[in-house]
Every structure is written in C-alpha cells, then in structure tokens.
Design goal:
The complex is a heterotrimer of chains A (319), B (372) and C (315). Chain A is mostly helical. Chain A has helices at residues 2-29, 34-39, 45-55, 61-73, 87-122, 127-140, 144-161, 179-213, 216-223, 228-258, 260-265, 271-280, 284-312, 315-318, and strands at 79-80, 85-86. Chain A folds into 2 domains: 2-87, no CATH class; 91-318, MetI-like fold (Orthogonal Bundle), CATH 1.10.3720. Chain A is built from 14 helices and 2 strands. In chain A, strands 1-2 form a two-stranded antiparallel sheet. In chain A, strand 1 (79-80) and strand 2 form a beta hairpin. With 372 residues, chain B is α/β, with parallel strands linked by helices. Chain B folds into 2 domains: 18-261, P-loop containing nucleotide triphosphate hydrolases (Rossmann fold), CATH 3.40.50.300; 265-280 and 296-367, no CATH class. In chain B, helix 5 (127-138) crosses helix 6 (143-156) and helix 7 (173-185) runs parallel beside helix 8. The longest helix of chain B is centred in the middle third of the chain and has 18 residues, at 203-220. Chain B starts with a helix and ends with a helix. With 315 residues, chain C is mostly helical. Chain C has 12 helices and no strands. Chain C has helices spanning 5-14, 25-34, 37-54, 56-63, 101-137, 139-153, 157-168, 172-198, 202-209, 214-250, 262-269, 277-305. In chain C, helix 5 runs antiparallel to helix 6 (139-153), helix 5 (101-137) runs antiparallel to helix 10 and helix 8 (172-198) packs antiparallel against helix 10. The radius of gyration of chain C is 25 Å and the shape is elongated. The chains are: A mainly alpha (319), B alpha/beta (372), C mainly alpha (315). Chains in contact: A-C, B-C. Chains A and C meet through helix 1, helix 6, helix 7, helix 8 and helix 10 of A and helix 6, helix 7, helix 10, helix 11 and helix 12 of C.
Chain lengths: 319, 372, 315
C-alpha cells in the first residue's frame, strides 16, 4: 500500500510539473508580447521595458521557468501589479468563497442525486423513476450559466416583486455577518451548481444500485426476511456508493476550476470570478497562479480517489 | 556440435532438402514484473533450442502439454515472433532475421490456422472480406477476380459460396475454422502451420475438419505442421510426431514407431494417458502418472528438462543436456530421442526408481523421512 | 486456384435467388435505433434545428431583418432605449441594440451546430488516433501518451480555455481548437482500453501472419471494433461541446461581435433579465432544446449499440 501511495504521489507530482511547464509555456513564452499587453495601449516603450524587467521577461526562458518554479515551491506565485498584492494573498481572499460554494453545492447535489438515484432504482420503470430521470436529464442539458439566470429571474426577481425579499441578486456575505446571511447569499449559486451535477449522480446511483440489487447477497438478505428498507439502505446502498464516491472525488477536484461560470453570474468574488477579472485586465500572474492551483486540486483529488479505491479494492494496487 | 551433425543426418535421409529446417530455435519472453527494480530481467524460456526438419508434403505433428512452448514455436515458424536465437530456413533460405517488410512476400509460402474459431475472425468484417484479406494485403487481382477467388476458396473448404456476405457470428465453430482455413489457403502457401485447429470444436466436428485438412493436403500438395495436445488427433493425420516438453523436443519419430517403440520416458507417460478402444488392452497397459507439476519455464531445470519428474532419472540427468539423436540401433533413422537412458519397449516405468537430487519424487520421500 | 471452378459456376446458376447477406452489427444497431421512439423524436428535432440553421437567410428575408442590423424604430427600442418584447414586426422581440432576437437566434444555431460538429470531430479524431496508437504500439509510446492523457485530464478545462482564448483573441477556429485539444483525452482513454484487449485477439495475429502492416491492422482490423463505442461517445459529446462553446461565449470569449451566437446573446441579455426576459428566454430555450435533443438521441444510440446499457429513459 505504501509503495502504491508513493508511486501515485510521484506520478501526481510529475503530472503537475508537466502542467506548470505547459502553463508557463503558454502564458509567458508563446505570446512574447505579454509586457506590451499588460502595459496597455498608451504605454511608452520605457514602461514596456520596465514591466519586462520586473517580470523577468528579459532573461532566458529556462531561467524564467526555474525562477518561477523555485518561487512557487516556496509559496510565492508572483506579484499582482494591479492590486499591488502578492498573488497568493489574492487567492487566499478568494478561496473561502469558492470553498463555500463548492462544499455547499456538493452537499446538495449528493443529497439530491443519491436520493433520486435510489428511488429510481428501487422502483425501476415506475412513474417515479421516469419522472426523476426526466428531471435529471432536463438539468443535465441545462448550461449552468443559463440555469443561474433562470433561478435569478424566478426566485430572486419574481419573488422580490411579489413582496418576498428573501434572496439577494448576488454578491457574497462572509460568515462573520452571520450564517443566515451567508446561506441566503449562497443558496442560488449552490442550486445552480448542484442541479446540473445532481443529474450525473442520479444516473450513476441508479445504475450502480440496480446492479447491486440484482446481486445474490441482496437476494439472500431479502430471503432472510429483512425489511425492504433495511435491505436497500444497509445492504444495497453501501456497496452501490463506491462509484459515486469516486465520481465525487473527481468532480470536487474539477470544481475549483469549474465555478467560473456560477461565480460570474452571481458576482461572487471567488477564484473563478478573480480569474475572469484578471483576464479582462490581462493580469498574467493571477491567471497562472489560479490555473496551477486548480490543477493541483484536480491532481490531489485524483490521488485521493485512487487511494480510496485501492483501499476498497486491493486488486487495483496490482495495476 | 554433435547435435548439429545428427540433425544434418536427419535431413539427408529424405528424398531432397526439407521444406523447413529449424536449428537451435529459441524464444525467450521478458517477464513483466518489478524485477526491473532489483536489476535482473528474468525470461520465460518458452522455446529453448529446437532442431526440427519438416519435409515437403508431410505432416509433422507437434504434441505436448499446455505450456510446453508448442504454440510459441508455431508463431516463430510463421514469424509472428522474432527469434531470440537460432535459424529457420524455408526452402533453403534463412528467414529468421527478415524484417516484417522483407517477410511479406514469404507470407505466401507459410500460412497459419489458429486455435480459437471465435477470436481468429474479425467480428466486424464480412466473411468474403476476411477470406479476401490476403488478396487485399498483397494487392492481387481486381475486385471482381477477388470475389470469384473467394467464392472458389469457400467452395474448396466446403462452405456455401453464397454466404460470402455474412458475418462470422452467423457461422458455427466448425464453419469458422473452415473460413480460417480458406483464408490461410488464399495465397496458395506451401506450408500450413495449424495451431490446435480442432481443440475448440466438438468431437464430431473435429473429425470433419481433420478430414478436410487431409483432403486439402492431397489436393494441393501442402505441408503441415500440426500442433495439438491431443495424441489421438495427431496420430490420425501425422506422418511424423515431435514431442515437446518445456521448450525442447524430447522425441521425434514416424507415427507408428512412436506409438510402438517410444524411447523417451515422457513420451511413454503421454501415451499411457491415451484412451484405448480395447478394454483388455487398456487394462494390461501400464498407467504412468507423472508426479508434480511442470516446472516454471522461467527457471527450467538443468540438464534434461524432464529429470525432476522422470521416474528413472539418474544423477547425470541433472547435469548433461541429452542430445536429440538416434537412441538404439534398431530405431529407424527418423527416430531421434533426447534421453540419456532411452527405454526398451517392454521396460516398465512404474518399477523405475529415480536417483536424482532435485527430483520431485525423491523430494517427497525425503520430506516424509524428515518428519518421521 | 483452378479447383472446383466449374462447380462454383454451376452453383451460381443453381442459386439464382436472392443473395444471402448477413446483417451487419451496424444494421442491427440501426434497426434497434429506428424502433426507439424517443430517439427518433429527438432526431426529428435535431433535423428541424439543422434545417432552420441552414435556412437562416430565409428567416432574415421573411422578417426583413438582418442578423446584425440595428433598428431604432419605436417597435425595436423603447424611448428609454430598452429592448421591446415580441410584436408583429419582431416576433421574438428585440435585444438591447434593437436587433431581431428571432433572426439572431436562428443564426446562432449555425454557430452552435458548427462548433458542436467541428470540435467534436476534432476531439474524436485526436482521441481515436492517439488512443489507437497508444494501445496498439504499447511500450514507451503508450507510457508517454498515457502520461499526456493524465495531464490533459488534470487541467481545469474551462479555466484554462478561458485564459487561453483571452491571450489568442476569440475566433471560431480558436474555440474549436481549444475544445478539441482539451477534450480528446477521455476519448483516447476509452479507445486505448478497448485496443489493449483487442490487440490480444487472434484475428490480429491472423492479419499479421497474412503480412498485414501495422497501419493496416490498426485501421482495418482494430478500428472497426472500437467504432461503435466511438460513435456512442461522439453523439453524447456533441451536446457537451455545444454547452462549452456557449459557456465560453457567455464569458465573453466566444465569437467576436456582432456575430450572433446563443451564449453571447444570453451574456448580453444578462443585464436586462428583469426588463427583457424574452431576450434570454428564446436563445436559452433554443440552447436547452438542442442539448436535450442531442442527449436523448445519444442515449438511444448507446442503447442501440449495446442494449445492456442502462438507459436514461426507460422504454
């Protein structure tokens, strides 16, 4: 197990290293006029030169890269010239918002997805199954930015018009303003993320549950006279959840980078919105920092998933 | 050195040059394991020094247990594998080091029929296109001509030529093997390597296919290397039989001679497992049950490969690799045996007593002794 | 081969009836698909959308409004400069610049479908070729390609896509390239897995013993056997790609204005969702209906090729 873990981590580091190379190449080397873009249209050649120097762009590429990696390993992802702050500082401010969004949404989509999936599987081909499946498929086909706007229109706008001023149109309220405010600001973004993803989980849980309920040991449990509830929840769901857990790990990793749209629609100043803002002002250090951070999240999540899998199924380790 | 001379002697007894001549053929596969970390690459010695001649128009049966390397040898002959060592001559031409490109024209000479009637035909292609594949690869004939030739081939192997548009899934196992045979015959090869072509079929179908192969041989003057683990099948079709054990040939002889006066203890053990039609004969026959399992081909035993299981193994069996040569004076020139202590026809193996250190038989005794 | 020629000729004369033809796995799958009502209905919707997209100039001619033409009449914009709702002149209302939402939505279908098809084709082409190569050749090539797949799958796609397009500047070809280059990995992984098991089958050895070249074995013997999986994946990939394109557009990185495309229209409509809901509703509905139709159709295709798959919509 230890050897498997070490190999998996080394592989993760290799992948991450390749990503930093790719990101570095794409953003710092390929468009050789980064300094010019950053300086803006009216910049004098001197300003451009100054920016080049400050970014270290006048040095050979390999040295720039080594410099970049060396600093990144020490937790220094560069300096943001727009806000005059270290990139890590900006990310630290945005991270709690993205985490609130990701974790809250994941709780909701897991509850919706697994519940619906189990219901569908327990009553296959019934009216409930068809209804829930149609529900899942509908949201699966819904782009999240559109769903966000639809929720805003009906739940924020229409409700506010009719006098129920429950939900804000967007923005973030930190937990320091009280959990109530925080939750009210997060509910619509949570739903936006959760409903789209819940569809995948409904489908996944349903098929895995149907497989498990057909197994001999479940039939044995039934024939022992256990209540249907106990059979489904204790014997069925427990093993049916393995693929769900795997998928959850992968999605959670991707979510750090996938919240861009939701944060934009609801003006939440998380990592995603920060990237979009950084893009509009061509703020490369921030873009690169967040891209690398998000990749690290994916790689870490993948390792955790593999390890969890190896713990559950020893055959995996043999590869 | 002695081995080479005897092998040449074997070649000279035929009316002319053998069609196929194998000399010291070896095929080792690297073992995939974490051995790399320990620094030592291990190898499976699948085929480990085989000398054989196959004469024009004959059928050479190649028998042995599962894992003895006979299928690997077949794939070496068809040059699906590169040799680790040794030479293969076809019609006097050394083909053992030809590249795949150089090999392509020679594919017309040697073809292969495979074991698995389900796996050896591409399920996504129509039978006509499967049988016509060789024409497409070697760019022979126009579309029309190919179709005509394919239908002739189907007729030849006893299939309805109207079925050329069907898929393999529409055919039975026996019919599929006929398709495989038609494909192999498309290029009019001189030699067919048949890798257990009937072992996946029902017994009643087996006979049909073997008769078909025999008829085709007469009609087209084919030479066969026929691989099987089933001695009764090979007896029916072969002129000569070679017995393999752990990557080496133990004994090779004309069929009747092998069945009547086999010299090698391993051959004797294999033959004793054959069912006999006459119950009296079967009762009288000696039953030899080999002790232990076939050793791993990663670390084959020293000396004679068979000494760990041989009932009459002597100490020098573990040291000397017995050459494949004529064992007794009254054997025919075609009968070669790789044994230091070849058996007489009336010798009984069950009375033999092995006296070799790493024998599985002895090891069992000593283990018992140690306990008591 | 001279043996039995005359017999064959005789057989030909005898059996003058219908040629016996096996039903190919494709034909069987197609027959199953044709019996699938939901899939056929989705296909009909897809065809309608395609036809509408092709006939976009016709809509322009009938309404008399170009897709990028701005109208400043009272029917098009309110005195305060806000979009106007559906009317006799503008059936689906106008946008913030006084353009016809109907005509723009119809033209937008062209972009969605074009990007959907092109980017999917690119994704599948790269994925199949690399997956086939990795699985078939094995060894060092396989190791390198597998690492590459791991890397691409670990990239936070939307984030990187957005950042990339911001550097290169938005255009149709960039959108297609970015989607293609970041999506092929999952196709490659599926194909590789299939090829790994297929290449051990005896028919590959048989092809080799006949003198087939590696390339011929890869494309003539192995490819047809992974094709059904690839087709299923392709139909399910199109709606995903359409959504990704719309998302990029929504984030301001789609096609340069004034080109009409659904994501971009919805992005423009964002600020007006309270006063001009039609401005979001029509392109939004078009987007959802399109992806829904493709998803349902893809589900049917998956079922037709492998009836054991678990269906979204149980029949």
């Amino acid at each position: 197990m230890i050897r498997f873990l070490i190999r998996r981590i080394l592989l993760g580091i290799l992948v991450l290293w390749l990503i930093t190379m790719a990101v570095f190449g794409l953003f710092f080397v390929a468009p050789n006029n980064v300094a010019r873009t950053m300086a803006g249209r009216q910049a004098t050649p001197q300003t451009v030169e100054l920016i080049r120097e400050r970014l270290g762009l006048d040095q050979p590429v390999w040295k720039q890269y080594l410099d970049f990696i060396w600093k990144a390993l020490h937790g220094n992802l560069g300096y943001d010239y727009y806000y005059q702050l270290p990139v890590t500082h900006i990310m630290a401010q945005a991270l709690p918002i993205t985490l609130s969004l990701a974790l809250g949404a994941s709780v909701i989509w897991l509850i919706i997805g697994v519940t619906n999936g189990v219901l569908s599987a327990v009553y296959p081909r019934s009216f409930i199954d068809r209804g829930l499946t149609a529900f899942a498929l509908f949201f699966y086909s819904f782009p999240s930015f559109l769903l966000g706007l639809v929720l805003l229109y009906f739940i924020y706008y229409k409700l506010t018009l009719s006098g129920l001023r429950w939900f804000p149109p967007g923005g973030y309220a930190p937990l320091s303003q009280g959990p109530g405010q925080w939750a009210l600001h997060m509910i619509l973004p949570w739903l936006t993320l959760a409903l789209v993803l819940a569809a995948t989980y409904t489908r996944l849980t349903r098929s895995s549950m149907l497989d498990v309920l057909g197994e001999d040991y479940v039939r044995t449990a039934r024939s022992k006279g256990l209540s249907e509830r106990r059979v489904v929840l204790r014997h069925g769901l427990r093993s049916a959840l393995t693929p769900v857990v795997t998928q959850f790990g992968i999605d959670l990793g991707q979510l750090i980078g996938g919240v861009v749209v939701t944060e934009t629609v609801f003006s939440l100043p998380g990592l995603g919105k920060t990237v979009i803002d950084a893009i509009t002002r061509q703020d490369l250090p921030v873009i690169v920092g967040i891209v690398i951070f998000a990749s690290a999240a994916v790689v870490t999540a993948n390792i955790l998933v593999d390890v969890a899998y190896a713990l559950l199924d020893p055959r995996v380790r043999l590869h | 050195m002695t081995r080479t001379t005897t092998a040449e002697g074997q070649g000279n007894t035929g009316s002319d040059e053998p069609l196929l001549r194998l000399r010291g053929v070896k095929k080792h596969f690297p073992v995939q394991s974490s051995a790399l970390i320990r620094g030592e690459q291990e190898y499976v010695h699948a085929v480990d020094g085989v000398d054989l001649d196959v004469r024009r128009g004959e059928t050479l049966g190649l028998v042995g247990e599962t894992g003895c390397g006979k299928s690997t040898l077949a794939r070496c002959i068809a040059r699906l594998y590169d040799l680790t060592e040794g030479t293969i001559e076809l019609d006097g031409r050394d083909i053992s080091t030809l590249s795949r490109r150089e090999m392509r024209p020679l594919r017309r000479e040697i073809q292969m029929i495979f074991q698995d009637p389900y796996g050896s035909l591409n399920p996504r292609r129509r039978v006509g296109s499967i049988i016509g594949e060789p024409f497409a690869i070697h760019d022979i004939g126009s579309r029309r001509e190919r179709k005509k030739q394919v239908q002739e081939l189907m007729e030849l192997v006893g299939l309805n030529p109207e079925h050329y548009n069907r898929f393999p899934a529409d055919f039975s196992g026996g019919q599929r093997q006929r398709i495989g045979a038609a494909r192999a015959l498309a290029l009019k090869p001189k030699m067919l390597v048949c890798d257990e072509p009937v072992s996946a079929l029902d017994v009643s179908i087996q006979a049909q296919l073997i008769n078909l192969l025999a008829d085709l041989q007469d009609e087209l003057g084919l030479t066969y290397v026929f691989i099987t683990h089933d001695l009764s099948v090979v007896r029916h079709i072969s002129d000569r039989i070679a017995v393999m054990y752990l990557g080496k040939v133990m004994e090779v002889a004309p069929v009747e001679e092998l069945f009547e006066t086999s010299r090698h203890p391993y051959t004797r053990a294999l033959l004793s497992a054959l069912p006999l039609p006459d119950p009296d004969l079967a009762d009288r026959r000696e039953q030899i049950i080999l002790v232990g399992d076939m050793p791993t081909p990663v670390h084959p035993p020293s000396g004679c490969r068979f000494h760990t299981r041989c009932p009459k193994a002597q100490p020098d069996c573990a040291e000397v690799v017995p050459p494949l040569e004529k064992a007794k004076d009254d054997d025919s020139a075609d009968h070669l045996t790789a044994c230091l202590y070849p058996m007489d026809p009336d010798e009984r193996l069950s009375r033999a007593r092995a006296t070799v250190a790493d024998s599985e038989i002895v090891a069992d005794d000593s283990a018992l002794g140690g306990v008591s | 081969m001279s043996i039995g020629t005359s017999d064959v000729a005789a057989a030909h004369e005898e059996v003058a009836g219908p040629v016996i033809e096996g039903r190919s796995p494709w034909a069987l799958a197609f027959a199953r698909l044709r019996r699938d009502k939901v899939a056929m209905l989705s296909l009909a919707i897809i065809i309608v959308i395609v036809v509408v997209a092709l006939l976009a100039p016709l809509f322009s001619a009938i309404t008399g409004h170009g897709p990028n033409e701005q109208y400043h009449t009272a029917n098009a914009l309110s005195p305060g400069g806000l979009p106007r709702g559906p009317s006799g002149e503008f059936w689906w209302g106008t946008d913030d610049l006084g353009r016809d939402v109907l005509v723009r939505t119809v033209y937008g279908a062209r972009i969605s479908l074009l990007v959907g098809v092109l980017a999917t084709a690119l994704t599948v082409a790269i994925g199949v070729v690399l997956g086939l190569t990795a699985g078939f050749l094995g060894g060092l090539v396989d190791t390198l390609l597998t690492r590459l797949i791991d890397v691409v799958l670990s990239v936070p796609f939307i984030l990187v896509a957005v950042a990339l397009v911001s550097i290169t500047g938005p255009s149709l070809s960039i959108t297609v390239l970015v989607i293609g280059f970041f999506s092929w990995a999952s196709v490659a992984r599926i194909v590789r897995g299939q090829v790994l098991s297929l290449r051990e089958r005896e028919f590959v050895e048989a092809a080799r013993s006949l003198g087939s070249s590696d390339r011929r074995i890869m494309f003539v013997d192995i490819l047809p056997n992974v094709l059904s999986q690839v087709i299923v994946y392709t139909t399910l990939l199109i709606p995903v790609v359409i959504v990704v394109q719309a998302t990029l557009s929504f984030l301001g990185l789609g096609l340069p204005p004034p080109t009409a495309d659904w994501g971009g229209m919805i992005s423009e409509a964002q600020s007006y969702y309270t006063v001009a809901p039609w401005f979001i509703a029509f392109p939004g509905a078009a987007l959802v209906i399109t992806t829904l139709a493709f998803n349902l159709f893809g589900d049917g295709v998956a079922d037709a090729f492998d009836p054991r798959t678990d269906r979204l919509i149980s029949q």
